[in-house]
Amino acid sequence: MKILKVNGMRCGHCKAAVEEAAAKIPGVSNPVVDLDAKELRYEESAPVDETALRQAIFDIGFDPQ
User: Fold this and answer.
1) Bridge partners of 39?
2) Range of the domain at 60
3) Quick one: signal sequence residues (predicted)?
């Protein structure tokens, strides 16, 4: 399991938006946001372009660390 810190998430809508954006990145499977920890957790079904993942999250208004 991979973990990415994401700042700016506060509600269920934020959670769903980040999970949806992450799911569109090739290789990301089972993305789940933990709002309390401010983390996106996901499995890799293939190598993930982490720059693309961070950019996708940034593009919807959040701050991936």
Assistant:
1) 5, 34
2) 2-64
3) none
Neighbours of 25 (CB within 10 A): 19
Q: What's the token pair of residue 63?
A: 């701050």
Helices 50-59 and 12-23: angle between axes, nearest 10 degrees? 140
pLDDT tens by residue, 19-63 = 999 999 999 999 999 999 999 999 999 999 999 999 999 999 999
What is the CATH classification number for the domain harbouring 16?
A: 3.30.70.100
Name the 3-class secondary structure at 61.
coil
> For the chain, what is the domain count?
1
